[in-house]
Amino acid sequence: MPIIDTLAIPAVEKRPGWKGRIFSSPSMTFAHWDFAAGATIHEHSHEQEEVWHVLEGELELTIGGEAARAGPGMVAVVPAHAAHAVTALTDGKAIVVDHPLRPDFGRS
Predict the structure, then answer these.
(1) Hey, how many other C-beta atoms are within 10 angstroms of the C-beta on 14?
(2) Residue 23, strand partner residues
(3) Which of the four pLDDT bands, split at 50, 70 and 90, describes residue 1?
(4) Sequence-ordered list of residues with C-beta below 8 angstroms from that of 103, at least 6 positions apart, any chain
(5) Which of 39, 62, 70, 107 is the most exposed place for a label (fewest CB within 10 A)?
(6) How confident is the model at residue 106 (pLDDT cuts 50, 70, 90)?
(7) Cα separation of 8 and 101, whole Å?
(8) What are the pLDDT digits (tens) for 14-27?
């Protein structure tokens, strides 16, 4: 099984306040995000199911028009094609996994 050193992957800022190390397996895309308080991800949807695991800090996730706060240890599951948006309420870290693969995020 391949081992990936996520710290060796250069961090990219996909949106203001969202710096991440992004990599993919053959069927999933992973993003290890560092987020800054006030950073947002606009409402959007995509064909992938998406799982947000908050490691540090606090996020507000709006999924299908329903907003909820998520802090350390909490997980939010975004169904495929569901409209969703994210606001960072504090600085923090999260791991996001998409299935199937997100071709728009590239592979490493």
Answers:
(1) 14
(2) 30
(3) low
(4) none
(5) 107
(6) low
(7) 21
(8) 999 999 999 999 99
All domains of the chain in start order, with CATH: 28-100 (2.60.120.10)
Would you give the distance in Å from CA 69 to the centre of its chain? 15
Residue 103 pLDDT > 90: no
Query: How, if at all, do strands 29-35 and 18-24 pair?
Result: antiparallel
Please give the Cα distance from 43 to 82 (Å, whole number).
10
Which pair of tokens denotes residue 63? 């999924």
3-state secondary structure of 50: strand
Contacts of residue 14, Cβ cutoff 8 Å, sequence gap at least 6: 20, 22
Residue 88's contacts (CB-CB under 8 Å, 6 or more residues apart) are 17, 35, 36, 37, 38, 39, 40, 57, 58, 59
Residue partners of 66: CB distance under 8 A and separation at least 6: none
